[in-house]
């Protein structure tokens, strides 16, 4: 029993290996992970806004392709999409980012997340009170003007907590980019930990990476939940006053 516990501790919690890989994780991996997360989220949010507007369109030729887009990207395994975009585009001669692996990685993750962002935005836009939309249309605003000046500003504020929560998922999704091959300076946290684990035939570096991921995601998750409760309470208070 004790021997088995000792082997588990050596395999996953070797302090020497954890302390050896942590500086590289924090100096190289963490900045690359955050940079990739920000770029991928920017792509996802921009595309998500466009797709969400399409999902709310009254025209079926506009709405149907947007629904297919969301269903396909949410239905495919993330690892498959990363391969298809990250390796497929250069192989097909579509060298949009040249030899920049990060560009393809950000695009792949951004496309995946845009489907989730689109559903978040759609729910937020649909939560805007119908009376405000009808009032805007009654003043002579077109459907597009109503969307730009009434629906999007209010809906966007209401979805800030879930958008932030989705960013946490983007951070975790960056671990997939190691599949595309990265230079030493481009490696994100999982790639660094994976290389170290392979070189040392020990999984403690992956444990170290997991600890850094947890240090990022757990406090952020609690902050997002508290923010969401506060916003819900504020909206409830306004509704009581009205």
How would the blueprint of this fold be written?
Layout (H helix, E strand, L loop, with lengths): L1 H11 L2 H41 L4 H16 L2 H9 L1 H4 L9 H26 L3 H9 L4 H16 L1 H14 L15 H12 L3 H38 L1
Helix pairs in contact: 2-3, 2-6, 2-9, 2-10, 2-11, 3-6, 4-6, 6-8, 6-9, 7-8, 9-11, 10-11
Radius of gyration: 22 Å
Structurally, the number of domains stands at: 1
CATH class: Mainly Alpha
> What is the second-level CATH architecture?
Orthogonal Bundle
- Poorly predicted sequence stretches spanning 5 or more consecutive residues: none
Question: Average pLDDT, to the nearest integer?
Answer: 85
Task: Determine the structural class based on helices, strands and strand pairing.
Answer: mainly alpha
Number of beta-strand segments: 0
Query: How much of the sequence is in beta strands?
Result: under 5%
Give the assembly state of these chains: single chain
SS summary, helix count: 11
Distance between the termini: 65 Å
